[in-house]
Specification:
Oligomer: single chain
Function: Transcriptional regulator of the ttuABCDE tartrate utilization operon.
GO molecular function: DNA binding; DNA-binding transcription factor activity
CATH topology of the largest domain: D-Maltodextrin-Binding Protein, domain 2
Keywords: DNA-binding, Transcription, Transcription regulation
InterPro entries: LysR-type_TF_proteobact-type, LysR_HTH_N, LysR_subst-bd, WH-like_DNA-bd_sf, WH_DNA-bd_sf
Strand content: 15-25%
Protein name: HTH-type transcriptional regulator TtuA
């Protein structure tokens, strides 16, 4: 029994998106085309693959079984076909990266413009979110994360600055009004601006280190923001004098330079390793991703 490759791709797209319209928007196709392709595939296999309601489309047990085997197989087919890209003067195709908002703001601006200038036939899509996701299940080719959140079966290469720091800061007005902490434990007596990840976990405790002494504090304060999407609101609140903030030093650097914010407890700021570009360790890497990997490595060698 033979099934058309385009029908199989349509089924995977619809099942992954959870609906025909959603899959059509993601794939650039039409909902009617995808619906007909799935109906054709079900008729050929003589089994229902998707349960359809007015609100959702969910894979049946048979559909789930097919998806488990089909996803990796189609990925390998696409990668195999992509081999011809290596014989072009310039790679062609799409590259989709899943990255944290901090990387989109602090790492990629120095990489993306020169990369796209060097590879004008590659279409790059950046999905910025804080949740840790399966990049393949999310329809992405690769991701950027920090080492403590990398999956063990992924290949990872350094991208961006190799050392970063978390910085604590407040406005001169706030510090003039409430005093300047000299030890991390004093933060417990201050108004602190906190973050919460999409998972529900808080960005606390704040951790500091100096001369071998490690101090972890659980500050409280008047404002909690969703990490990533609302981080700039917390920065604006700190500038306005609402409280003390603790995030990436590079995020705050422009405000340090302008004088809008003042470093707090700088001798205690902790350093940590920079982010990594990670991708599945499969045999055939798509040409756009290979071009990006090589570009990142060359950029690191030049710096």
């Amino acid at each position: 029994m033979k099934a058309d490759l385009s029908d199989l791709n349509a089924f995977v797209a619809v099942a992954g998106a959870g609906g025909f319209r959603e899959a059509a928007r993601a794939s650039g196709s039409s909902a009617s085309f995808l619906s007909e392709a799935v109906r054709r595939l079900e008729a050929k296999l003589e089994v229902r693959l998707l349960n359809r309601t007015t609100r959702s489309v969910v894979a049946t047990e048979a559909g789930k079984g097919l998806l488990e085997r089909l996803g990796p197989a189609l990925t390998e087919v696409e990668a195999a076909l992509d081999v011809v890209n290596r014989f072009r003067d310039r790679p062609v195709g799409s590259l989709r990266l899943n990255v944290p908002v901090s990387a989109a703001r602090l790492v990629l601006p120095a990489i993306v413009p020169p990369f796209l200038a060097a590879y004008p036939d590659i279409r790059l899509e950046i999905v910025a979110e804080e949740s840790f996701v399966d990049v393949l299940a999310a329809g992405c080719d690769a991701g950027i994360r920090y080492d403590e959140r990398l999956e063990q079966d992924m290949i990872a290469i350094p991208i961006g600055p190799r050392h970063q720091r978390f910085a604590t800061a407040a406005s001169p007005a706030y510090l003039g009004r409430r005093g300047r902490p000299q030890h991390p434990s004093e933060l417990l007596g201050h108004a602190c601006l906190l973050g919460r990840f999409a998972s529900g976990a808080m960005t606390t405790p704040w951790e500091y280190e100096r001369d071998g002494e490690v101090v972890r504090v659980e500050p409280t304060g008047p404002l909690i923001v969703r990490v990533g999407g609302a981080t700039d609101l917390a920065v604006d609140a700190a500038i306005a004098g609402t409280g003390i903030i603790c995030i990436f030093e590079d995020w705050l650097r422009p405000h340090f330079d302008s004088g809008a914010l003042e470093p707090v407890l700088e001798p205690w700021w902790q350093r940590f390793s920079g982010p990594f570009l990670y991708y599945p360790g499969r045999r055939l890497v798509p040409a756009p991703l290979r071009a990006f990997i090589d570009f990142v490595k060359e950029s690191a060698n030049r710096s």
